[in-house]
Predict the structure of Enoyl reductase (ER) domain-containing protein.
Amino acid sequence: MPMPMPMPSEMNGKVDINGYSNPNETAGKVILCRAAVAWGPAQPLVMEEICVDPPQELEVRIKILFTSICHTDLSAWKGENEMNRAYPRILGHEAAGVVESVGEGVMDMEAGDHVVPIFNGECGDCVYCKCEKTNLCEKFRVNPLKRGMTKDGKCRFSTKDGKPIFHFLNTSTFSEYTVLDSACLVKIDSKAPLKKMTLLSCGVSTGLGAAWNTADVQAGSTVAIFGLGAVGLAVAEGARARGASKIIGIDINPDKFIKGERMGMTDFLNPKDLEKPVHEKIREMTKGGVDYSFECAGNLDVLREAFLSTHDGWGLTVVLGIHPTPRMLPLHPMELFDGRRIMGSVFGDFKGKTQLPHFAKQCMRGVVNLDEFITHELPFGKINEALQLLVDGKSLRCLLHL
């Protein structure tokens, strides 16, 4: 096992990567590095020395400097969806790093650029990318079943004896080096603090974007957020920034309420403490229901409460939680005739490569408070401890230093 690489340091946003591979020496070659490999459902991740191939056409190889763990990583690690089980596999999709080398045809990035991977890519050329009504991409949209690279279906990871290691969500960031399609990588301002930019890969962009882009929360409006993980709290931060007058947080973990208040929430409800359904309590508090509700728990019963908590005539429910079960929506079609609407949101409806660089600059200006989302920091080698923190509900984002 190689000696651990030195941790990156940041001065005024710029990253000191002394001690990392020199692109002039490694470009076009296989790199040996550490990765946290999943060998089976719910098994501890194993630190392995793996081989990372050079990037092929329109691909980029990056050095991961920071990565964090999302509930989507957690559910994949647990193997909650049988169709998503593929082993060995490198999970992870929230990260920030530096470009090591680029493949043929990559024109918008070069070695040394600061970048953020995105699980929902943007090629810029397909009919979807050219449509202002969606942030999906024909080739690079989020696909949990995808196991290799788009161009040839092969893996760019392998064990030292040549066994392929599968990819995850277009990114696979639980590795010191990873290879991505260039459509799934965003170049950001070199002055942006990469440590915080990790959050833009998924959680913060998904939640805040749902408030800004999907729902377009208006000043003075009322909001209910069901599930106060990182995504739910990002919704609160987005609603606060838009000037919502009442932001109600709903969660069965009372510890989440303290954090929620710092993120702009005005009221809190614990369903376990109520003698009536949550939606009835919310309707009482808001004289008929909230303007917007956000379901961030991945629970269909919670989704129904979120839907019924909105005001008839104009209420909008945005679905953000991941629902792994085969159960269908708990709604009768006629309930939609009361004017309430329901819709899903992927990556907060951000077009990653087009819009994320501007969002990163907004974060640099303090429009969004990212510090509150990072609750723990650990070295990469303690990734299983970070997983357990999320399982126990003790962390929002545990930042891992590679």
The two ends are 15 Å apart (CA to CA). The chain has a mean pLDDT of 92.
